[in-house]
Specification:
By secondary structure, the chain is an alpha+beta fold. The chain has helices at about 1-5, 15-35, and strands spanning about 40-45, 55-60, 70-75, 80-85, 90-95, 100, 110-115, 120-130, 135-140, 145-150. The protein is built from two helices and ten strands, in the order H-H-E-E-E-E-E-E-E-E-E-E. Strands 1, 2, 3, 4 and 7 form a five-stranded antiparallel sheet that branches. A five-stranded antiparallel sheet has the order 6-5-8-9-10, covered by helices on one side. It starts with a helix and ends in a 6-residue tail after the last strand.
Length: about 160
């Protein structure tokens, strides 16, 4: 009876579950910005030879230098505040406006959420490498709804 439980693996992450996770992060950042009347941001991070991460940060003001803003990752609580790209998935591009802001020199990109709940429009491309091909899926954030729409293939903002 115990053997099947030991052999049970975590379910394969699908594009749909990844979209749900992205929507949970966006929803959390938006709700916190509205409730706490602070700026939040979603961080898209892809480092070479490492798994990509997407997480939420909260803006803080330095009491000694009020003009200086810092950001701290929001600890996990009742909702998901971070996710790690798994199963061979990596961030390929993060478009703010029409420009890909994710580069080798700057492996982080940010989507800001202001206190009235408005979110910066962002489009991300995530690639999953297979033996003979790459599967690319794009996720576009609707800044008014605070949710990601999924598109198969490369979607570049116009």
């Amino acid at each position: 009876m115990v053997l099947p439980l030991l052999n049970r693996q975590r379910p394969q992450e699908t594009w749909e579950t990844l979209q749900e996770d992205l929507n949970q992060l966006a929803s959390f950042a938006r709700e916190e910005a509205l409730t706490r009347r602070k700026i939040y941001r979603i961080v898209f991070q892809q480092k070479p030879q490492a798994e990509g991460k997407i997480f939420v940060e909260e803006e803080h003001t330095d009491p000694e230098q009020p003009e200086k803003k810092t950001y701290n990752a929001v600890p996990a609580g009742y909702q998901k505040t971070s996710l790690t790209l798994e199963n061979g998935r990596t961030l390929r591009a993060v478009y703010i406006g029409k420009r890909n802001v994710l580069t080798d020199q700057d492996p982080q990109a940010f989507c800001y959420v202001i206190p009235d709940g408005m979110m910066q429009p962002v489009t991300i491309q995530i690639v999953r490498a297979h033996k003979n091909y790459e599967e690319i899926v794009s996720f576009q954030l609707n800044p008014f709804m605070g949710s990601f729409d999924r598109h198969d293939g490369k979607l570049k903002p116009e």
